[in-house]
């Protein structure tokens, strides 16, 4: 599509359903002509500094030559071929990289289409593992409140049942066991009462629990809660002690976002199943992966079914795999830890928002900055203000947050942070 091709916003409004949006009273959408680095160019002429990295995925920014060249080279060979009965170099290379950079016990890789599907696969792995052992009582999952794992049905069933966007579906979703959300914050002292409460839940429910699923260190769309690594360490120990599998959902936190390559490294633990996505391809296209141990993979394979009962049409898409390989190399070839550290320093500019009466808390971790307000935000109103300030920030609930591309400069972060301050101070929300 040409950069100058007009965008029919009337057709868009009448016929296209955008994420989490009403068809009768849709939120405004802004027409994008093109993107470059960490800039979004609107068809109406505005140039916006991106604070969202396309829902946290475009860690290298937009249009990076390394990723584009990988895509061009691969599309000239083959864009897709079925993964059933066939394989190809991009998938093999990608899985080698993933096995190398993730915790050492994770040796088996299942490639999927999206984050939600990745979680579905992880849940299937856990349930099917216990069935393959002849244990039929372990049919439930355990998870903390304030969690979020995706929009498909099994993923929705382990999102916060009261405060999540999925509360509408109560009664339709499987009934799982929810434990209190982590309270001790990342930089504070860990409250041992949290460990005791977790122990009580495991002792009461473990016989029926196939797996405990959690977002390590950062509960993302459930409230941007940065919790203490000891909580995750406690969960790992209890899973081991009570014979429960541990699923860590790193779809949002993987590939450096929290200051570690994977957030589990903050707690120095290894999960039984790991979910990754979003930044896996540097935001170029959709791809995810579910990694697991030899024990689980062999257990499933030697069970009654003999196979993992899942197989997406676009599984192992060569184009996505080639771009993912390029994105991983690009990240690891740089001093990405220094990048994240510099971003975190720049995000401290948000702290002055704490002076405003409407602000409950300001918190940062790695390349994440969050300003929590005392009331729900009018997204349409605040985004109109942000556009006028030439920034792209999309809040949710009571949270205004930044997860910028890693290439963002200190000046860019300051502009983003100032826009947030001015939006709150001027009550544009």
Describe it:
34% of the residues lie in helices and 17% in strands. With 429 residues, it is α/β, with parallel strands linked by helices. The strands form four sheets. It has a seven-stranded mixed β-sheet with strand order 4-12-11-10-7-5-6, with helices on both faces. The longest helix has 18 residues, at 115-132. It starts with 8 loop residues before the first helix and ends with a helix. The mean pLDDT is 96.
Features:
single chain; 429 residues; alpha/beta; four-stranded mixed sheet; 13 helices
List the helices and strands and how they pair.
Elements: H1 9-15, E1 32-36, E2 39-42, E3 47-50, H2 53-56, H3 65-75, H4 89-101, E4 106-112, H5 115-132, E5 140-144, H6 153-156, E6 177-179, H7 192-205, E7 209-214, E8 218-219, E9 225-226, H8 229-241, E10 245-249, E11 273-276, E12 288-293, H9 294-301, H10 318-333, H11 336-347, E13 359-365, E14 368-373, H12 379-388, E15 391-392, E16 399-402, H13 410-425
Parallel strand pairs: 3-15, 5-6, 5-7, 7-10, 10-11
Antiparallel strand pairs: 1-2, 2-3, 4-12, 8-9, 11-12, 13-14, 14-16
Helix pairs in contact: 3-10, 4-10, 5-9, 7-8, 11-13
